[in-house]
Model the fold of this input.
Amino acid sequence: MRAWGLIRLYAILVYVFMFSPIAVVLLLAFNNSQFGGFPMQGFSLRWFYKLAENEAIIRAFKTSFSLGLLTALVSTTIGVLASLALVRYKFRGKDLITTVLISPVLVPETVLAVGVLIFLRWLHMPRSFGLLLLGHSIIALPFVVLVVQARLVGIKREYEEAARSLGANPVQTFFQITLPLLMPAVFAGALFAFTISFDNITATIFWRPAGMETVPTQIFGMLRNSVSPEINALGFVMIVITVGVPLIAGGLARYFSRKKI
Amino acid sequence: MSETAREFDRRPWILLAPSLLAITALVVIPMSFILVYSFYENIDLAVDRVAFQFSNWRELLTDNYYHIAIWKTLRLSVIVTVLAAVLGYIPAYFIAMTKFRHKWLLLLLLILPFWVSFIIRTLSWIHIMGNQGAINGLLIWLGLTDQPLAMMFNEFAVIVGFVHVFLPYMILNVYVSLEGIDENLEPAARTLGATPWQAFREVTLPLSLPGLAAGSLLVFVLTGGSYVTPLILGGPNDFMFGNLIYDAVVTELNWPMGATLSFTLLVLLGLVVVLYSRFMGLNQLSKAFG
Done:
């Protein structure tokens, strides 16, 4: 049992390693110092006010937000369709198709980003918001497919067959039977896609048109060997959005599903 | 029905079409383009000429600068992968085996870092190890030193940043494979006379190797393809192969060389993936998401 105690201690220390840097950012966001680091010089919200006045950051936030939402929409739509094909139909070359669908994660993102740019160059097309949207959607697609597929396997085909035998056409069956049952996975996939897009920097640095910044590239541009207190406040806001929103959504979903039973 | 079953069924392909089209346009074609472009000739900033010549490849093969970058990338990826495995296995084992009532909380905490912005997690290490970071602040406050210790902007900081960001992938993969092991196996080994350590080493560890391998592959490939972490946490000499690509494309606007380097990185990391799938198959990788 002493061994188990050591294992527990080790696990706790690893959790501390994972979370203390994040906790430090959350803490320093409230530092009343004009520098971004320690020591703490009292509690203050001034950097949040400062942040709210920073037009470049607000613009980056808007860009990231709409990019994330549209990426979620595009990748979830095409991902659900692809998952349906993989789970509900038999066809030749399914293994190969599956590999192709997850290929965007197998290619290093740096290489993917440069490859797309070179193709664009050959087409004489400029970099655009549309490129970021399509690119992010492709990067998110494998994750959406994996999540949706896993859920779809668990939905009994009998429900769909029952609907069909009662006279529903395939489209009606999908929207009235399959999609509602699939909703948790669609939602999870969309959330996943949003986060992937909202967080992406590796490819975004290459793909963004001149003058366009997302939140991560904006932060990257602001980093000059030291971290400004504004970045800490921005980090706080981002963590609250990307961690808080899914947690609250998940918690609410659990609460309501429990209430029904 | 049997008649239609024999016919070519078009429906799955209609459903797959949007995804396959997008992947073809954004992955398949671009990957062939970087090979073609690697033979082009760079004339000036952002000016290149269609050609079939090997000067880019010759430069890559003869210039030591590139070899150092390949070596550094390989070394760093191995170090990060080993550290992630060493740091990650035991917590994964703990989560899988614990009788703790709120195990879901441990799992949630494991997923949580995935939701925290990569760039925030990376730069947070400046707050820990930087001159005005937590460690130096503590040391100065304790009076152990009056000059901050230089811990940032070197290879160590880059390694710490990588391990911190990629560790959850490792723990998650190992956890999934440990969770899939029949929980009666270890007690069975014990009743047959094995010590706890023997039971672990001979039963649990081998059965969890697929998860460890999948986690290692992910961490290795993700590290090997990075360039942002060294830019934020490293010094001027801590460049990886990805940084050379970034320099060629973003700074020097030398597209043919950028293409040559990209193709090289694709092949090097692709070899690792191919080797892995030869032995393990790609199924294990998708399990962690199920």
Q: What stands out?
A: DSSP finds eleven helices and no strands in chain A.
